[in-house]
Structures are given as structure tokens and as C-alpha cells.
Amino acid sequence: MSKKNSIGLSLLLVSSQLVINPLFAKAQTDTQTPIAPATATRAVCPAQLGKSIDGVVNRQIFSRARWGILIQPLAANTTLYGREAQKYFVPASVTKVLTTAAALQSLGANFRIRTSVVQDANGVLRVIGRGDPSINDAQLTVLAKQLKSRGINDIKQLIADDSYIKGDIVNSTWQWEDVQSDYGAPIGSFMVNENVFKFNLIPQTVGRAAQISWVDTNESRQWITINEALTISQGQPTSININRDFTGKVLRVQGQIAANSNPFSVTLPVVDPNYFFLRRFRTALAGEGINLGQTTVGTGTSQQELAAVQSPPMSQLLASTNLESNNLYAESLLRALAVKQARKPNQTTADVGMEVLRKTLTQLGVDEKTYLLNDGSGLSRRNFISPEALVQTLRGIGRGSAGSIFRASLPVAGRSGTLKNRFKNTSAEGIVQAKTGTMTGVVTLAGYVNAPRYEPIVFSIIVNHSDQPASVVRQAIDEVVVLLTQLQKC
Asked: Per-residue DSSP letters for 173-233?
């Protein structure tokens, strides 16, 4: 997930506190601007491709890295180039290729997620969350307006029914730093504003503490905030740490911010999604003049639906997931796969979704032995995917009736999403659609090439155990992809 000016949290074992480390969060996103490869116009024959790619991969700077590559025509299971294509690699966010392909194939392009407010037999109102990641304050206002139109001015009790999605709100295989960062926000039946809250640090006069300005004052009441961030002289570097204790109650703001600098934006994940939703809904109801009394989390017997909002269709949910590599959306789609599926005792919604994912990918022609997944987003380092699995998935979904919808969800080289700043002024700009992936030591790219003098190509490139900066690895990957755009039959 990419968040402008967002901050990640890393574990500081010495003090048993969580310390914000901006560099770590950036290492988890796919939006860093790489060095674009030089524009080249030469033609490449298929027989020359292997030597050209080897010239990139076998550079001395990559002597300690593992490369996995598979390049094939979209229409045929013939290999133009392969390197350890059957081996497992840690995939990072390119995992979303498997998740979104399965969601589209299984649920269809028009699938939507519904959030309802119902009235139980005893007159108590209950809001039923079904895991819609797209809900925001505006949609809560829509719900409130619908209730107002029904003549509801006072709600004595509102229950948040979170029974739809079962299981932990964060994946047990995610690293501690991830679950304390905005890109690792919790997933459940209720999600609003992507389950993050924000505040800004505003510099004051030199020597004074920076002012904390909460975007949502409701959230300021949930924390004991200790502000030790000082304003320093203009032109000095800004450096901010946010320590969050294990109880989830104390925020300690430390560091320095330069006078006259722009406000420093902090984005953090919520601790309890259900009550965060209820607080935001209370605000929306108040805005429509509806008084809300007691709130709680529980279940009930559905009766009359009084109000409802729906997510955008699957086609738009896919785009939100893939274009900006949104982890919350990916995990929500994994759980959406469990809709209408039988559930064994003590089986989580994510587990059911994973079963459907595997069955769906098998139907698309993906060998289930070519991948092992622990989540739907790619944050887990226990995910293992082969280049072969990615190519099989891309071919299976790309050649089907939903192929155009899936491809439209992917970033376009030099134009959109996490590829907006890559491939500028190269032969790949505008004709490559691909999903990115980045975490420490891992850089990936997989997608389609519409080569102007060759048939459509499917490719996957995964680099693991690299000791080089991510920008250097991306540069090399981009060079390989540019070669694919120059292919011609000869």
C-alpha cells in the first residue's frame, strides 16, 4: 500500500516500544522512482533474447542475488526465456496477481460488497459489515441520510455485527513492523477510511514543541499523547519518531521539525476496527441530526433492512488493489472469495477464501504445486511463488472473457499506478501492463507486453536476496522488459 508521507513502525527491542522508521515503510511500497533505462530502438530476435537477458542478470553486482524469470507468448506454452522458473521465491506484492485473478474469475466483474443497517425484532438497530474496504465517511453519511429519511431521529442502541468475517484482524505471519504501519492495517467485517487515522505535526517558533493537529478529534481521545517533538531552525532536517507502546494507548512523539516547513503527516493503523467504525458512524449520524445512544459489538437476528451502501463493482476494486498495491483491498478480496462457501468449525474466513483461490487458479490452468500462499497481499514472507505460477495465472486470466478487465486493473508503464514513474521515454512506455512488488531484498514485476513487432508476451521476474538498492534492481528488471518490447520475428 502506498501512502504519501505515511510512516511505518519498527520494533525497538531495547525500550520495548515501537519506533517509527520512515525508511522501512518506503521499503514496503512499490512507488519509489527508479532510474529509467535508456531509450533504445534496436530490434531483438528471439534467438538473441537469452544472451541479452543474461548480460543483464549476470552482472557482478547481482552475483549474490537470485533471479527467477519466465517469458512466454500469451497464446502458447512455449518459453522464450527461463531461469529457475519452477523454483520458489518470496514474491512481495506481485502476490496480488494471484488474489485478484481468482477474485475476478470466481466472483465476476459486477460483484459488490454490501453493508446494511437492519432493525431486529426487539427494535435494536444493527449494522452488518461484510468486509467492504472502500467505505469512507461519505458513505457513512449516505447510510445516515437513509435512516433520517425513514424518520429515525434517535437510536437507543446500535450493534456492530462483525460475524461475517471470522479470524484474526491481522495475519499471524506478518512482521511486527508491518502490523504497526498504515500498509498493514487490520482487516475485518468493518473497515472505514482504510482503517487508518491521521494527525499532522505543525512547526511553531524555534524551541517550542510542534503542534499536533488531529484530522479526527475522536481519535485524539483514544490515546495518551506525549509530545516531545521540538521546532528547530529553518533549513535543518526534519526527523520524527512515533513510539507506540504495546497496550495501544500511548503515543510518544519525538524528534524535530524545521520552522516554517510544511506540516508533517502521520498515518497509523487503528487498533480496534469495529469501534473505530462505530465512532465514525456516530459522527455521520450526528451530522444528520440523529442521536445515538449505546453502541456495542455483537450479533442478532436480521429483520428489516433500513439502509444499505454497496462497494464499487469488482472491476474497480481490482484497480484499487493493483494500481497502488493496496494491501487492505487485497486481503478483503481474499475474504470475499469465501462468500456462500461452507465453513468448517473454527475455520477462518481467510482460510476458506484461500481454498477458493486455489480451486479457481487450478481452473485457470495454474499448477497448485507452483505456489504456497499465507496471505492475499504479499506482506507475508512465508509466501512462495514461482515465476511459472505467475505466468500461468496471467495467461489463464488474460486469455479468458475477463482478460480485458483484469489487464485494465494493472499499472501501465510510464502512465499509471506504481509504474507511473518507470519506463519513461523508453519503448516500454504505454505498452507494458504489470504488477510490481517490493520489500527488503525483494523486487518483482510480472505482467503483459504488447510488443509492436511481435505477438503479446507474458512475463514474470522475481529477484530475491539482493544486497543492492531496490532502484538498482528495478533498473535491471526494466532493461529486461525493454528488450521484450523490441522483439520481432526474424
From this structure: TS-HHHHTSGGG---SS--SGGGEEEEEEE--STTSBPEEEESSHHHHTT-EEEEEEEEE-
- Calpha distance 51→58 (Å, rounded): 10
Q: What residues contact residue 404 under an 8 Å CB cut-off, 6+ apart?
A: none
Phi-psi region for residue 5, left (φ > 0), alpha (ψ -120 to 50) or beta? left
* CATH number, residue 148: 3.50.80.20
Structurally, the chain folds into a number of domains equal to 3
- Predicted model pTM: 0.91
Residues 181 and 219 in one domain: yes
Residue 277: all three cell numbers together:
467504525
Contact 306, 115 (CB under 8 A): no
Q: Which of 441, 376, 324 is nearest to 6 (CA)?
A: 324
CA-nearest of 327, 427, 316 to 380 is 327
Task: Convert the pLDDT of each residue in 377-395 to its tens digit.
Answer: 999 999 999 999 999 999 9
Which H helix or E strand runs over 343? Answer: none
Structural domain span for residue 142: 114-170+272-312
Q: Residue 445 forms beta bridges with which residues?
A: 436, 461
Of 48, 46, 375, nearest to 186 by C-alpha is 375
Regarding whether 443 and 401 lie in a shared domain, the answer is yes
Tens of pLDDT along 341-372? Answer: 888 888 999 999 999 999 999 999 999 999 99
H-type helices in 293-348, by residue range?
Answer: 314-323, 327-336
- Quote the DSSP letter at residue 95: G
Strands 196-202 and 264-269: antiparallel
Report how far residue 351's alpha carbon sits from residue 348's, in angstroms, rounded to the nearest whole number. 5
> Is 23 inside any structural domain?
no
Q: How far apart are CA 385 and CA 446, in angstroms?
A: 12
